[in-house]
Structures are given as structure tokens and as C-alpha cells.
């Protein structure tokens, strides 16, 4: 999927639409979709970013349906989830492959540029909805102002971005077995409900 960042604009959007279209039938089957995002096996080297995007998109789309969002909003959430980490393609691989605990302060700062980089990539592509760019840019922001890249607070953060943000957090802690934060899927879900509700808001954490 990250190869899309270097592909033609029309090809990139067409590929994204095909992925989301193929995913729709799976998302309708809640148990099947959940089994995909709960899988603990690690993807092949070089496929991590693509698999993260697909996992986040599937679960975020399912959550958006549960919340009763409109068809257009659900489509934006799905595409925002798919592209949430596209900016990582511009972060050095040597930084990306490290667990969070092993990053130096300089590397943390570099890694936290990825939402801004993703925004820049998508803004250069004709036809990407503004709502999708907003999700990519804001999904690591927290209501209490401790997120990144802009330390936004409360109403400055779009609901769709907060929804995708909760899924990204869940995916991070339930998929990286190298991390000290790693938890199994059930534990990770409990952590999101109990520890992150105030960071993302009960309207997206407790559907």
C-alpha cells in the first residue's frame, strides 16, 4: 500500500477504493472482521505499514457503522484508516522498525512527524476528501492536549480522527509483541475502554 504514495494520483485513489470496496463485505460480518484485526501473527518484512492500514481501516469502518455514521462519513473513516500511516513511508526504516521504548528523543521527534508527512502526501493528490486528510493529520491528537503533531484539544479534533485514533492505539498495543506495552486483543480492548476514554472521548470509545 505504501507504494501508492509514489504512484500516480488516479492510480492511488483507484487502488484505495478497490481495497475499501473489497473490505466492505468482510466488515459486514462483524466476527470475521474482528478475527482479522485480532490476529497476532506478524506480517512479512516490508508489509507492516500496509497491514496496519488495512487492519485499522477494517475495524474503524466497523466501529463507524456501530456509531451510526452516514455512508459518506463511514467511507471517509475507512479511507482515513487505510492511509493513517502513509506518512511513515517518509520516516527512515531504521526508526520505524524500533519499538517505542528503544527510540532516542531525536527519533521520537522524527517519528511523530508522520501525521504531518501524511497530510502533505495526500494534499498533493487531487481528489482526496478534506475529511480524510483531517483524519490522517489528527488521529494521534488527544483531547487533553498531550497528542501530536499539534497538541490540539477538545473541539479542535474531528470526531472521525478520534475514532480512527482509538483503533490505531488498539492496533499498536495488540500487534507489536516486541513492545513492553504489548497486550493480547482482549486486554488491549479493555485498556482502550478504561485508560483512553478521556483522551479520545466516550462518544467514540463507548459506542
How would you describe what is shown here?
The structure is a single chain. The chain is mostly helical and 207 residues long. The protein has one domain (2-205): Hypothetical protein af1432. It contains 12 helices and no strands. It has helices at residues 9-28, 30-37, 48-66, 71-83, 93-96, 105-111, 114-123, 130-138, 159-175, 185-195, 197-200, 202-205. Helix 3 packs antiparallel against helix 4 (71-83) and helix 9 (159-175) packs across helix 10. The longest helix has 20 residues, at 9-28. The protein starts with 8 loop residues before the first helix and ends with a helix. Mean pLDDT is 83; it is low at 1-7.
List keywords for this structure.
single chain; 207 residues; mainly alpha; Hypothetical protein af1432; disordered N terminus
Largest sheet, strands/sense/barrel? none
Count helical runs: 12
Contiguous runs where pLDDT drops below 50 for at least 5 residues: 1-7
Distance between the termini: 30 Å
The beta-strand count equals: 0
Residues in helices, as a percent range: 55-70%
SSE pattern, N- to C-terminal: HHHHHHHHHHHH
Count of domain modules: 1
Q: Tell me what portion of residues adopts beta-strand conformation.
A: under 5%
The global form is: globular
CATH class: Mainly Alpha
State mean pLDDT (0 to 100 scale).
83
CATH-defined fold name = Hypothetical protein af1432
**Radius of gyration, taken over Cα atoms and rounded to an integer in Å:** 16 Å
User: Structural class from helices and strands?
Assistant: mainly alpha
Quaternary: single chain
Amino acid at each position: 500500500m505504501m507504494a501508492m504514495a509514489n504512484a500516480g494520483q488516479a492510480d492511488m485513489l483507484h487502488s484505495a477504493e478497490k481495497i475499501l470496496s473489497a473490505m466492505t463485505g468482510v466488515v459486514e460480518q462483524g466476527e470475521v472482521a474482528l478475527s482479522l484485526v485480532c490476529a497476532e501473527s506478524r506480517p512479512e518484512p516490508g508489509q507492516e505499514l500496509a497491514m496496519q492500514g488495512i487492519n485499522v481501516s477494517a475495524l474503524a469502518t466497523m466501529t463507524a457503522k456501530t456509531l451510526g455514521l452516514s455512508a459518506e462519513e463511514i467511507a471517509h473513516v475507512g479511507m482515513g484508516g487505510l492511509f493513517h500511516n502513509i506518512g511513515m513511508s517518509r520516516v527512515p526504516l531504521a526508526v520505524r522498525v524500533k519499538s517505542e521504548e528503544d527510540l532516542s528523543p531525536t527519533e521520537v521527534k522524527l517519528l511523530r512527524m508522520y501525521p504531518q508527512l501524511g497530510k502533505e502526501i495526500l494534499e498533493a493528490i487531487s481528489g482526496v476528501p478534506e475529511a480524510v486528510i483531517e483524519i490522517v493529520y489528527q488521529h494521534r491528537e488527544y483531547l487533553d492536549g498531550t497528542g501530536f503533531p499539534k497538541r490540539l484539544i477538545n473541539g479542535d479534533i474531528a470526531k472521525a480522527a478520534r475514532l480512527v485514533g482509538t483503533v490505531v492505539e488498539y492496533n499498536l498495543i495488540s500487534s507489536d509483541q516486541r513492545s513492553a506495552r504489548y497486550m493480547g486483543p482482549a486486554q488491549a480492548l479493555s485498556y482502550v475502554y478504561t485508560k483512553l476514554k478521556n483522551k479520545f472521548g466516550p462518544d467514540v470509545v463507548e459506542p
